[in-house]
Each structure stands twice: as structure tokens, then as C-alpha cells.
Design brief:
The chain is α+β, with helices and mostly antiparallel strands and 186 residues long. Helices cover 25% and strands 26% of the residues. The radius of gyration is 19 Å and the shape is elongated.
């Protein structure tokens, strides 16, 4: 397999964020970054082999000679660096900075107005071939659009749900019953 293309960038951003949270990719900037021809090693982001006719980035994370370097394709390096810089340590990404990949369930903090919010798993739906149409946020459970006035503010991969606080989980699990109350208040 060769270097990933730009069409893969949305899914690779999500993977980069997940791997940063899991500690499989560094959150901190590399001590040194080396570039050269691919060595046949696997890319630490997309898991594809970096062929000899492709550029390879090798990240030296510290001065220790025993440290295993991180190896990335050119696009994977750019995406990792972008996500690393934008990633809040809690994993939340502002919707104003980056939208999640369409069709992928993510955990989102939804503003209900009047200083109220909930955590809910949602899916961003973008109609195919309709670049001028606003994307629609769907409730992952019901697959229906979010009620008027419910605005996603930030998101993180759904696999991070275990890091949510108990109050967030309580809000999320009761979102259906509290949603009608919250909608009336908003």
C-alpha cells in the first residue's frame, strides 16, 4: 500500500487523536524530525508500509539512543502534527476548528442554550455531492436530527466515552427524557 490520499484525511485525523490519547503516538513535539526515503517500515499512523519511493518522516522523541522512533508518511506526519497541536489533553476538539468525519459516531458536547449542555453520541451526515448544503447532526441512537437549538460545540472519538465524568454520563443517558424538558427551556 502507498501513502494515503487526502480523501483518507478525516479518518486519519480521528485515528491520530485516538492514538495520541492511547499513548501510541506522542502528544509532545518531537525533539528532532528526520526525513528521507522510505525504509519499508510501517507508518505509525496509517499502518501501511512506507515504500522506498515515498518520503518517510522519523521522529526522535528524546536524546536516548535506545528510544524507538516514530515513522510516518508525509501526509500522516502533517495530520498527526495538526491534531497534536489542536488536541486538548481531554481529547475534545471544537466543532469550529474541525468537524468529525461524516458517518462516524462521535461523542459530542451539545449546547442546549442558557448555559446548559449534554454529552450525546452523534453522527455528522453530509449529503453526497451536496457541498453547498449544511451538514446535519444525527442522534446516533435514533438516527434522527438533533432538535432545533441543540448545537454541537465540541467532539471526540466515541471510544473515549469511558473518560467522561459521571455527571456527563448521567446527562447523556437521560438525554431523551431531559431532552424534552431542555428543549422547552431553550
Amino acid at each position: 500500500m502507498s501513502e494515503p490520499s487526502e480523501k483518507d484525511s478525516g479518518a486519519l485525523r480521528v485515528r491520530a487523536r485516538e492514538r495520541i490519547e492511547q499513548g501510541r503516538l506522542p502528544r509532545a513535539r518531537a525533539f528532532r524530525t528526520w526525513g528521507g526515503r522510505g525504509t519499508g517500515a510501517r507508518c505509525d499512523l496509517c499502518d501501511a508500509v512506507i515504500a522506498s519511493d515515498e518520503p518517510e518522516f522519523e521522529l526522535q522523541l528524546d536524546l536516548s539512543p535506545s528510544g524507538e522512533p516514530v515513522r510516518l508518511h508525509r501526509l500522516c506526519h502533517a495530520l498527526w502534527n495538526e491534531v497534536r497541536e489542536a488536541c486538548d489533553p481531554s481529547g475534545w476538539c471544537p466543532v469550529s476548528h474541525e468537524l468529525p468525519p461524516p458517518g462516524v459516531a462521535v461523542e459530542a458536547r451539545i449546547s442546549l442554550g442558557a448555559s446548559r449542555s449534554i454529552i450525546l453520541n452523534v453522527i455528522l451526515d453530509v449529503p453526497e455531492g451536496a457541498s453547498d448544503v449544511e451538514p446535519v447532526w444525527l442522534n446516533e441512537t435514533t438516527r434522527g436530527p438533533l432538535p432545533d437549538g441543540w448545537v454541537p460545540v465540541e467532539w471526540r472519538p466515541a471510544s473515549s466515552a469511558s473518560t467522561a465524568s459521571s455527571s456527563d454520563e448521567a446527562s447523556s443517558s437521560g438525554s431523551t427524557s431531559s431532552g424534552s424538558n431542555a428543549g422547552a427551556a431553550a
